[in-house]
Write a structure and sequence with these properties.
There is one protein chain. By secondary structure, this protein is of the alpha+beta class. The chain folds into two domains: 82 residues, Arc Repressor Mutant, subunit A, CATH 1.10.10; 131 residues, Endonuclease, Chain A. Helix content is 49%, strand content 18%. It contains ten helices and ten strands. The strands form two sheets. The chain has an eight-stranded mixed β-sheet with strand order 3-9-8-7-4-5-6-10, sandwiched between helices. Helix 2 packs across helix 4 and helix 3 packs across helix 4. The chain is rod-shaped. The model has no long low-confidence stretch (mean pLDDT 84).
């Protein structure tokens, strides 16, 4: 019996090897045969045929008569595939239990916890620590949007801003009076300063890869760090939108 390569590949994925597939197809084409007849029809070496047939019986694809000479016949494909599904599910549950019991404690012991792509930062110290970490890693560009309430946070990091690599482009957009930020601009190497009357929240975007967002009006009600591609991309586009409509300040 001839079948497409796609069907053969499917049977291989279900756990049958080439000899087992050929033997099963020979039985489907004939109905029932002895081992010698299957060997001849399927072109499976006679030295291998009993091993092949026993594996097919174990996997639920073939049955045999109870008396000698043993005759073999195929299990209906719909029944064989159902048995295969059950067998694989049982194997998977066993695999899962073995792997989880053996490796999960090692994973937890080594504290190899996946880095989350969003963190909510609580407390000023946590915010400042994360801000310094973000600034240290910047290599190309920093976009800083600073509402009035974020001024203490931003100015507390002036030493990190001033130690940035010279090729890092720093854009600072602030709410309120631009004159209040000129000292930071001079000391921290800000390339361009722009002013807006008001901002709802703000943040820092580093190299378009990670962002810290300050949400609130009079005070930060929520501070978030993220390296989520979608969130950082949205924050960068929104910053650029506000930046383009802000007022440039004189040097």
């Amino acid at each position: 019996m001839t079948i497409s390569e796609n069907i053969r590949e499917t049977l291989r994925e279900m756990g049958l090897n080439a000899y087992e597939i050929d033997a099963y197809l020979a039985l489907i084409g004939t109905g029932h045969m002895t081992a010698m007849e299957i060997s001849h029809e399927a072109k499976v070496p006679y030295s291998k045929i009993y091993e092949v047939l026993n594996m097919l019986k174990e996997k639920g694809w073939v049955k045999s008569s109870e008396s000698r000479p043993f005759r073999y016949y195929p299990v209906a494909p719909i029944e064989a595939t159902a048995l295969t599904k059950q067998r694989l599910e049982e194997k998977f549950e066993n695999w899962k239990q073995i792997v989880n019991e053996a490796l999960q404690p090692l994973y937890e012991k080594r504290e190899l916890v996946e880095r989350p792509d969003i963190l909510i930062l609580h407390g000023q110290q946590a915010v400042v620590t994360k801000l310094e970490e973000v600034l240290k890693k910047a290599t190309k560009e920093l976009m800083i949007a600073a509402p009035v309430f974020a001024r203490p946070i931003i100015t507390s990091a002036d030493q990190w801003l001033s130690s940035l690599k010279k090729n890092v482009l720093v854009k600072l957009m602030v709410a309120g009076e631009g004159e209040e930020w000129q000292v930071l601009r001079k000391n921290a190497g800000v390339n361009e300063l722009r002013v807006r009357d008001h901002m709802f929240g703000g943040g820092i975007i580093a190299d378009g890869r990670e962002a810290m967002l300050f949400l609130g009006e009079d005070k930060p009600s929520l501070v978030i760090w993220s390296n989520h591609v979608g969130l950082v991309g949205f924050a960068r586009e929104y910053f650029q939108f506000l930046w383009d409509s802000s007022t440039k300040t004189k040097t």
